[in-house]
User: What shape does this take?
Amino acid sequence: MGKGKKNKGKSIDAETEEFEHSEEGLEKRAAKFANAKDEKNKASETRDFSYTQNREVSWLRFDDRVLDEAYDESVPLFERLKFVSIFGSNLDEWFMIRIGGLSDLTLLKHQPRDNKSNQTPSEQIDTVLGMLPALIERQGKACAQIEQALSEHGLTRVAREDLTDADRTAMVRTYERQIAPIISPMIIDPRHPFPNLRNGNLYVTCTLDGTDEKGLLGIVEVPTTQGRVIPLPSREGQYRYILMEDVMQELLEGCFGDYVPTASAVIRVTRNADIDPDGEGVEEEEDYRQHMKKVLKRRQRLQPVRLEVEGYLPEEQLHEVQERLGLTDERVFRCDMPLDLDDYVYGLESKIPESERHELVFDPFEPQPSSMVDLSKPMRPQVDDHDVLLTYPYESMSPLLKLLREASTDEACISIKITLYRVAKRSKLCESLIAASENGKEVTVLMELRARFDEANNIEWADRLEQAGCTVIYGQEGFKVHSKICQITYHDGSGINRITCLGTGNFNEKTAKLYSDFMLMTAHKGIADDGNTFFRNLSLGNLKGSYNFLGVAPVGLKPLVMRGLNREIGRARMGEPAQVFMKMNSLTDRDVIDKIAEACQAGVRVMLMIRGICCIKANVPGKTEGLIAHQIVGRFLEHARIYAFGADTDILYLSSADMMTRNTERRVEIAYPVLDPTCKKRVVEFANLQLADNVKARRLTEDGTWERLETEPDDPKIDAQELLLAQAYLNTQEVADAAMDAKLVAKANPMLTPEETRTLVALPYIGSFEEDRDGQEQVHTRIVTPAEFLDQERALLAVEHKEEAKAKATQVPTPAPVSEASPVEKNMATEPEAKPVAEEAPAAEAPSTEPEPEPEVAETEPEPEAEEPEQPASAAPKHFDTKAAAETVKPEPTAAEPAEPEAPREASPVDAHVIDEKPSAAESEPNTQTTSIEIRRPNRFAVAFKLIGLGFAELFTGNLTKRRK
Assistant: This one.
């Protein structure tokens, strides 16, 4: 960590705040909102903004998509109220971080410009604040409609004007016993200054008239130590309640002595929470945990960025509050719904009348055991035998927890190393780490204390782990460790062996039941060596280490993705099939966006699944034509990241990182290859199913908005998350023993009709690939190792350089042949992103000692290459001839047509259609332009799985072999 020293006479809080609002501090923080290279090189003046959109605008469109779920009548009613709450809590965090940070940057003399919209922070704030009133009004309407509908099911929030005499009696009794003794009303006058309104807390505010003074302002904080829901008298099968702030407004008279309340409202202040935890550094004598505790205290006192008002407060008093908080009119939002829904909605679920529960909430679902393991047997031998891929939340986290629990008592286990970003408050995983340390194992935990809004919980766990004897370390200054990796080392008769667990999401038992993520457990030696190197580099503070299998940010992850895109661009330029599939939470990195646009222009089939922020626009003429970008918002939060390249998906990585500049350049992230064929197939099937979704999915448009997918009335409804739930039940032994008993599946997916449920139970495996009549699989996939991946790119570059040199030597202007280097391929040879990273250089090359121009290729401690990975039978041979493989894709010349360089061709599209009757002779003619898939319709639901298993499998894997009847 950077070191700082106190100035005499100044508190560390005052010193840090002074630094954050200094020109130097603001310039440092500006790096999060603009590309420093753009500002330095004035690249923003030449940027093409026709196919990009502002990050904040895209985020608001995502949150509006969340609100769509509140209006979806197919979602259970109380779950719809949760989506209203999620919309609001998302908005809270967005104001605290993004608007808070942008507000600070408006203080700069020369404001940086956003590299997606070319707007300054001031212009961005004006844009999004103009969008907000309509969204908040839409949220209020959704809340009112849902609450009205819930009252018909026995769950009723009673308004103040609807209270009965019995209600008032019960309300007064609760107020006098639980509320009145702990509240502290305050009158604002020259003797009583305006109080510090804490971030996110509720305050009842009123106007007061006295004998001598009128129009005074009164404020009383709503207690946070008591539950906000106050029960009222109810009949059986009902639950009637009123909120605490409504009780306080109803009984304000008497709170302020002789002063009489004349009008009241509930207000809530949102403050800037975008604090740089490192600031100028940490005191030499100070533990980093103590530093973070002080940082958390400062959040309650930072500058306000928003004021919410529910109820009526006269303009004079409202203006006084605004003036005290320093807020303009644009930052004051009047609401017709309770403020801070998140604070009470989730606790209200337990109050739903039991007779109505089935209709109002999702049927309960328990993550199922993975079909890849047997929990009745020890975990280590199973992972040694084969890789295990867990799919949360559909499959349980139990195999991982069991592996750690067994390791904590296994005499052969000598060490456990893990990175923790967000941890459950009651974590079995952390308890296993403590047990391992107490049993004499070496346990090293990198605890990221800067995980926003989880800092306090992480500090508490860091204390407990250290007290138990674990070695606890923290991330580097300026670089959060967002990686999800755990490594267990064993020493027995066979020597040193390691199991490495890598995830797209946190080691968190709670979120593993809510977030859609992958967790890979592998004994692969090459990945194990890289994992060991990763932890050694973290302990030494080395962020530029070398790796053979892992792509590690801030140096090696972004170049890995750029190489994958470059390889497919090169293939498309040479007329070969080329395809890219990427699934992530957000896409904001301008370099990656530009490369995706370049791939679209080259003819690469690009498919994106992006849950949240998406700063690229789809199908902009001449820029992103053909780009397929979908978004899924549903019961579970889509959190997995997948990066797949190749028409046959030969390169497949999972990762903890989104393609956001903060992830690719300012965090420690990991991308890891999926090398096991079975695990790879599971990921491909998962992606196929998500691409097939036409219920919860939305499609990105040319103007950056999300629109529903158009479907025909007879089209099967495909909800990927619901089908994955059903699949998880199908894979359990309980269902396998009673294949036609559909009760469990029906419970998992109440949307299915009985006939569809029986069909689903009868299916052996969702997304499985049928075989052609000749016995060959439709989709031929292979596995490319990271080293081979690099060799392929070099082979493409070598071809381009050769052709370019030949053209220069002849100096004869001729039409460019297919293999001539395109502008993008020339860039591949010159751009830093296109260069092979140092850690993947072959052993024959000596590492360079000269400094590289970009950090992505800098190297301080070269590591020896890992051994060549063991190849499964179905994988590509070790010495794969990429040139020969490329030649086999090209069509051979016929006798009537001499061989000549053919024009670049696009990958043939998939034409999936459903037929009920025998096709005519004309229809059965082979189509040379498209890949035809004929599906006999047994019933509606079976068609869905045919499309998933065939059409979308071919779409994803890019199989261009013509299917003949």
